[in-house]
Design a protein that fits this description.
The structure is a single chain. With about 110 residues, the chain is mainly α. α1 runs antiparallel to α2. The longest helix has about 35 residues.
Amino acid sequence: PKQNPNVQKALELENERNAIDKQMQKDVLELETMGVGMNGSLVDAQGFPRADVDVHRVRILRNNIIHLQNDYKRIMSELESLLHVIHAEKPVVAPIPPDPMKPFAKV
């Protein structure tokens, strides 16, 4: 059976979201192993770049994480809208009322 195009798009967005999440986790882990995270200082007490950290790499990772967070928010917003559309499209099947003339038990 042919799948609803909105459902297909939602599945694609889900896959994209999972890929972004995986990349963000990888980048955050790399930052944490450097000991700086997203907010750690990149300069020492005298204001010079820290010698124990690859400052350029940290800035690239932080920038990448921020871009990924923005992409993640966009995808989540698209998914939310799409799910509303998908659920609105789904036909509501009303339960069949019991036949009032049919006996419920035989005596």
